Amino acid sequence: QTIHQKDYTIPDYLIDTVELTFDLDPEDTRVVSRLAIHSNHDRGNGVKPLVLDGEDLTLVSLKLDGVALEQGAYRIEDAGLVLPSPPERFLLEVETRINPKENTALSGLYSSGPMLCTQCEAQGFRRITYFTDRPDVMAVYTVTLRADKASCPVLLANGNLVEKGDLPDGRHFAVWHDPFKKPSYLFAVVAGDLVHIADRFTTMSGREVQLEIYVEERNQDKCEHALRSLMRAMRWDEEQFGREYDLDTYMVVAVDDFNMGAMENKGLNVFNSRYVLASPQSATDDDYEAIEEVIGHEYFHNWTGNRITCRDWFQLSLKEGLTIFRDQEFSADMQSRPVKRIADVKSLRSAQFPEDASPLAHPVRPESYVEINNFYSMTVYHKGGEVIRMLQTLLGHDAFRAGMDLYFERHDGQAVRVDEFVQAMADAGKRDLSQFMLWYDQAGTPVLTVSDAYRADEGSYTLTVTQSCPSTPGQPEKKPFHIPLAMGLLDREGNELPLKLAGETEALGTSRVLELRRETETFTFVGLKERPVPSLLRNFCAPVKLEYPYSDEDLNLLMTRDSDPFVRWEAGQLQAVKLIMALIADIQAGREARVPESFIESFRRLLSDDRQDRAFLAETLTLPTENYLAEQMAVIDPDAIHQARELVRRTVGELLGAELTSVRKACAPKAPYRPDDGLSGCRRLKNLCLSYLMAAGRQEAIDACMVQFRSADNMTDSLGALSPLGSCACPEREEAFASFYECWRSDRGVIDKWFAHQAVSRLPDTLDRVLALLEHPDFDIRNPNRVRSLVGAFSQGNQFRFHDASGRGYRFLGDQILRLNGINPQIAARMLTPFSRWRRFDAQRQELMKKELERILAEPGLARDVYELAAKSL
Ligand code: ARG
Ligand code: ZN
């Protein structure tokens, strides 16, 4: 059953207050819910039925204004509980029973290790009790929790603790009240045997907030970074957006079994433990950054998501796109802004662009869905974030900030649409943003085709920019988008030229934002003594593909001289793409493929330049991924892509051994590791050098790897050595993986990495290893992180081996999806992504992938989540 945006109607009934009482038990929890309900429509034309959503609930009793309802006064239907003709205003009391232990879907109330916890977004609350489970019904919640005191000493819910005490039979209770009205998806409960670390934060207006991070006891010493990150996020939101926290406590709980990254429940965030737990020995530099980012993300939701929420789920990007933008900016301020921007662009291109080019393409604001969980997508989140960034680029920083202030001022406490947000921006910036709205409603990645002409007699230079956008499901034709194009012009020496458009009286700086509105736009710059080199799409100012016929010389100039770090990096990537594409053509034609001297020379120059920022240099020296290269091909040839890319890596390793070794030495640790020692760029560069040396396959490199592996005092360097060993057909590989396992077997997060590093190995026996790992005692199909680290890493992080022409990889994935279907539909659906790209491959692979999709669709009892994606993919 498909839900359409255009069918939205306001709720028939509203709920003002919710009183919930939980008698918690892992296998038989009783929930009593008291709802103060009133009609939200004019009753002149009759009474509408009240429909309360419910799923996998056992109804125990039902009372209306204190009186038990007779059998005929209500119905239980597939979708939930129906009262055909309730009064105008009444109190409904519903008692239900649920079994958290059997809840392997991890939606609603479920058990994870020694605790019970909840995940209600998007529609999990209906798996706890009957309710109008939609975000535009907002209520004030009071929650009483009762549980066995010995096994469940900690009882948490949203808001403030108002009372607690003991009960007979070794039980105890706690009462929580959340003064802020909220939609049901922000409800949360956690109960279990947990410890916490705490600190205090004083807000800008002087309010004291208690911060608490709850974990299982064995993880007590791994919370410090999350807590510090939270304090940085709170300060940053005050400084950048003037937003202050609003409750007396802010709690974060880490759980091992979690479908997504984390959840912004009001005052009680629940996190996947991988985004909380970190110790210097067990977490990588990337882990530290990811924790800071996700902690920030959930914290920023308190204003963009919780104080102002979504009217309906089609508006998901209202909170997610905006909050992604905010967390990206936070991370950029905490780390290196250019490196962060590059990382974000890479992830957009490697995951969102392919989604936009697949049968699952959908707009940032989808117009329909079968299962909303399938739309927590790269498009809604990350393209949505880019859309917000474009608004900032178009309006300028100050007007954008004024637009944010206006949005908060107008809509605090409301559930609104994307339109309200964009209107606030339009009003604050005094701009017409009606065409800009197409970014929310049209899917597909626009392509900008740029051509230019220089007229020496006039000293003028004309850029012609034509936009187009491929058709996507349900949208054969597209209207032109409103696109900011940040650009500059360079002379042949690499100097930035003043930018003066024809008709202007003076030049306006050396970098400016052009606005594209029509299909074709031209811009003529004057006062130019020679033909300039255009620097386009600075800071990746729009989520588009840009086509301009750069010469190698142009790219060299941009790479070394442009003022914009993104453009410098991009120029290097374009060179690498050009080179690898040429090698692929040679390989496919059976010609000899060789890496040109000039490419190696430019790598040599980069490696010898020790003035550069090392994290940025590492990005420059990293070749485009196989996934990204695949995107550039009409028909993806995973074998040729792998061969060509490896040829470049091997050649670099062979010819630049001395340079790589000396950079490794220069970056070698001089003091014991500290996560905040400012040397993460150094470690990244050094480990990249090691991987190039390993690509050349010499024993010295293997020895160097083993030395690093044995002596590393931090996880970044351990994995920096383990990772290339994973693709090395040498005895050292077995030794390293075995000893790594022995050392870390009691640390789940690290063992996830151990699984993943085997799943992404380039060696020919990888699938056999993966199959064997499915039987490993530490593999647990019910744990999403473990599934991602084995099944996900192989199918989404190992294009070469997954797309083996035999189709064995496909069969493996099909099997795992079917297995997951009955356990955790959300995770099963997530695993389907690679199959949705089947049309991009050759006929034989297409056939094999299609067969798997058909096999999945033929399965009886297919979950809605899996059905929707499989059906749309075909
Ligand atoms: N709102 C959460 C976040 O962005 C994501 C939770 C989504 N969960 C789900 N099952 N759809 O941080
Ligand atoms: Zn979010």
TrEMBL record:
Cofactor: Zn(2+)
Boundaries of every Aminopeptidase N-like N-terminal domain copy: 19-186
Annotated catalysed reactions: Release of an N-terminal amino acid, Xaa-|-Yaa- from a peptide, amide or arylamide. Xaa is preferably Ala, but may be most amino acids including Pro (slow action). When a terminal hydrophobic residue is followed by a prolyl residue, the two may be released as an intact Xaa-Pro dipeptide
Keywords (A to Z) from UniProt: Aminopeptidase, Hydrolase, Metal-binding, Metalloprotease, Protease, Zinc
Record EC number: 3.4.11.2
Peptidase M1 alanyl aminopeptidase Ig-like fold domain location: 444-548
SUPFAM superfamilies: Leukotriene A4 hydrolase N-terminal domain (SSF63737), Metalloproteases ('zincins'), catalytic domain (SSF55486)
One Pfam family cited in the UniProt record for this chain: DUF3458
InterPro entries noted in UniProt: Aminopeptidase_N-like_N (IPR045357), Aminopeptidase_N-like_N_sf (IPR042097), PepN_Ig-like_sf (IPR038438), Peptidase_M1 (IPR001930), Peptidase_M1_dom (IPR014782), Peptidase_M1_pepN (IPR012779), Peptidase_M1_pepN_C (IPR024601), Peptidase_M1_pepN_C_sf (IPR037144)
GO molecular function, one term: aminopeptidase activity
Superkingdom per UniProt: Bacteria
Protein family (similarity comment): Belongs to the peptidase M1 family.
Protein name, UniProt field: Aminopeptidase N
Species in which this protein is naturally found: Geomonas propionica
Gene name for this UniProt entry: pepN
